[in-house]
Amino acid sequence: QGLSSPMLRCPSQRLLDRIVRRYAEVPDAGSIYMDHLTDRDKLRLLYTLSVNSHPILLQIFPDVEGWPFPRYLGSCGRLVVSASTRPLRDFYGAAPEVAADLALQLFAVLRSMATNDLNYFFYFTHLDAGTFGVFNNGHLFIRDASTLGIIDKEEGSQLSDGQQEYKDIFSCLTVDCQSAFVSCDSITEEHSLVMVCQELLPKLLKGKFPQPMQEKIDSFLQRCADGLHNDQGVSKAIAKLVELLKPLRSCDSRFAYRYPDCKYSDKY
After folding, report:
1. Fewer Cβ in 10 A, N or C end of the chain?
2. Over the stretch 202-253, which tens digit does the pLDDT of each residue have?
3. Distance CA 194, CA 268 (A)
4. How confident is the model at residue 74 (pLDDT cuts 50, 70, 90)?
5. Same domain for 134 and 22?
């Protein structure tokens, strides 16, 4: 309790069990009990969670199960080895059809992180141009998961509002010990979508399309960005953006993650 990691800001027993069971840096991984973890293993796990939860997230929500993360290959100290991606910032000057495709992928990824079969709601506490990456096949992934928080929609959080926050021995190494946290109950499913509309999409889509299309896109982007306290407004703005951007994509080998399927189905 009290770890500075955004991932454990709103903990549940189900999430904690998943971390222990899927933590791959120990022999006999797979048990929800911590008997197979030595004191050193426990300390390493706690320290990793406190300093950077990215490698833990990649282990407990692997890409082979459909989660939008790069594959975790291993780590040594603070060095994490995973598949290479290009950061989203590299695509700010991309062709209009590429920008439209990436914007639609961003929406799809964030929707899947808010609504999925396991009933975990993932939200970002911070976003920048390096948070997302793109593989060579054009597929967009979450490149840096260290600022992801998780809320268990099935069990809810074990922390109640007003409950005392206890500081672990690592908390003050990475953040201000007096930092105020947002209540778990106040985070909505539109939270990350609003952040993307504020921080990333204006740079990705700026000046990409002829008028009046660009004006329409900019208008709905602004509605989305202004909708932090209006979930319905955000949803409607996103729906309109998807409607506008979908016809602007192209179907060719640059988008290998959906080509040639896109030639035969509107789904792609």
Report:
1. N
2. 999 999 999 999 999 999 999 999 986 677 789 999 999 999 999 999 999 9
3. 25
4. confident
5. no
**113 belongs to a structural domain:** yes
The two tokens of residue 249 are: 């994509």
Full DSSP string of 203-266: HHHTT-S-TTHHHHHHHHHHHHHT-TT-HHHHHHHHHHHHHHHGGG---SGGGTTTTTGGGT-T
56 & 43 share domain: yes
d(CA 209, CA 79): 40
DSSP letter assigned to residue 57: H
**Tokens 């990824």 correspond to what residue?**
109
CATH code for position 186: 1.10.510
Range of the domain at 180: 86-154+168-263
Domain count, the chain: 2
Buried b (16+ CB within 10 A) or exposed e, 16-52: eebbbeebeebeeeeeeeeeebeeeeeeebeebbbbb
Do 62 and 101 belong together in one domain?
A: no
1 domain residue, yes or no: no
Higher pLDDT, 231 or 69: 69
User: Is there a domain that residue 162 lies in?
Assistant: no
d(CA 6, CA 199): 19
Q: Cα(first)–Cα(last) distance of the chain, in Å?
A: 43
| 3-class DSSP state of 73 | strand
136 shares a domain with 48: no
